[in-house]
Amino acid sequence: MNALGLSMIFKMGCLCSRDYLHINSSKYFVLEQLGQGGFSTVLLVEHSRTRKRYAVKRIVCHGREDQKVALQEVEYHKVINHPNVIPCMESSVSGSPDPVLNTTSEVLLLLPYYSRGTLAYELEVRSKMRHHLEQSEVLRMFLQICEGVKAFHEAKPVPLAHRDLKPGNVLLDIDNTPIIMDLGSVAPACVKVRGSSEAQRLQDLASERCSMPYRAPELFNVDSYCMIDQRTDIWSLGCLLYAMCYFKSPFDIVYERGDSVALAVISGTIDFPTVTPYTQDVHELISRMLRVSPMERPYIYTVIESTQEAFSKYKSVV
């Protein structure tokens, strides 16, 4: 057999051995892994017939509780319908989780693919070049993120909180439209904690599912008797806006130094660069969101209003 024939066999062999997965009646070829978290993997896939590309979130469930959480994520996608929140186009579940038999199930979520990647990637590139986003662009994007968060806080029958808002969970469309993703941390916004065991359970859940440099103070050390509400997201938005301005959350910097993030968060001390391309209005907005006491933080409606005011004021000056 000549070299061309061998080459064709190798190529056919590669095609035949490509990983693929089924979601309901459609087949998708796996192209590459886009990301991996503690509970899931995100894959870039291609529809076998249309060749259109999508992202698939694959969640492997080792027990019934894992599967329940994964299926709840699918349900949250059905509840939230907003242009700044990623939609789940289809989902499927296969297998049966049983830790005794060492079997697992798999939940797949078919999602749109955004080729530009995340806001975290954008900020990383800009950080290397020391190229800040324009203030008008920061406020425009932040306003859209807030509108997406508002959809969670207004959810029916109960308000929801995202609980893990950060640059890594914001995708960018081709026109710089921000899209909130990863609903795996979403939970009912208002939680009445009654007793130390409930407090510890919530604290453990937060440590698993809420990224430390963006986690609200009340989730680091949950009081035995308290009410947690959607203003956990407002704290995260404060950290997010700071990162949009200065490439990282103020507590990312603490973490990288090896200091205690928990102590820094609970102290509530926020430092702003003395040389900055941003106005005092932006710093004041961040500071209002980063109040240690959740009772002193604004709700999302006030954040949106303040952002709109800062945006209008800046545009009139420029």
Automatic annotation (TrEMBL):
PANTHER family: SERINE/THREONINE-PROTEIN KINASE 16, SERINE_THREONINE-PROTEIN KINASE 16
EC number: 2.7.11.1
Family matches, as SMART domains: S_TKc
Annotated ranges, domain Protein kinase: 28-311
The protein's enzyme class: transferase
Keyword list, A-Z: ATP-binding, Kinase, Nucleotide-binding, Serine/threonine-protein kinase, Transferase
PROSITE patterns, per the entry: PROTEIN_KINASE_ATP (PS00107), PROTEIN_KINASE_DOM (PS50011), PROTEIN_KINASE_ST (PS00108)
Entry superkingdom: Eukaryota
One annotated GO molecular function: protein serine/threonine kinase activity
Protein name, UniProt field: non-specific serine/threonine protein kinase
Parts of the chain that traverse the membrane: none
Family of this protein: Belongs to the protein kinase superfamily.
InterPro entries, sorted: Kinase-like_dom_sf, Prot_kinase_dom, Protein_kinase_ATP_BS, Ser/Thr-specific_kinases, Ser/Thr_kinase_AS
One Pfam family, short name: Pkinase
CDD domains cross-referenced by the UniProt entry: STKc_16 (cd13986)
Reactions this protein catalyses: L-seryl-[protein] + ATP = O-phospho-L-seryl-[protein] + ADP + H(+); L-threonyl-[protein] + ATP = O-phospho-L-threonyl-[protein] + ADP + H(+)
Binding positions for ATP per the UniProt entry: K57
